[in-house]
Specification:
Number of helices: 4
Helix content: over 70%
Distance between the termini: 67 Å
Strand content: under 5%
Number of strands: 0
Structural class: mainly alpha
Length: 107
């Protein structure tokens, strides 16, 4: 029986290929969920990186609030007026407050 040919020239090349495959899998997973890919922000200066991170956070929270609002609107009037509906509406308002509090950080 003949040995299998080497795919990589050394262990470092094999590890680099593995990290690359893992990164590609994460990007594909985010796309499948409809989320934006993670930016390569670690190379940016601190202030710009933090501003971008808060912008992305606010964007994601806004999407969540929009989805929650659509869910709330699709429910019956009875559900909206009971305890579950009121709790859901309070959560939406809390998320919107957080988004509003984040906005001055990048203006």
């Amino acid at each position: 029986m003949m040995p299998q040919p080497r795919l990589h020239r050394n262990h470092a090349a094999r590890q680099a290929a593995y990290r690359s495959r893992q990164q590609q899998a994460q990007v594909q997973q985010l796309r499948a969920r409809g989320l934006p890919s993670r930016p390569a922000i670690s190379t940016m200066p601190g202030t710009a990186r933090w501003t971008r991170a808060t912008e992305l956070t606010a964007s994601l929270l806004s999407e969540i609030a929009d989805e929650m609002t659509a869910y709330y609107d699709e429910r019956s009037q009875e559900w909206q007026e009971n305890e579950k509906g009121e709790t859901h509406q309070q959560r939406i308002e809390a998320i919107q407050e957080v988004v509003g509090a984040l906005e001055p950080l990048w203006d």
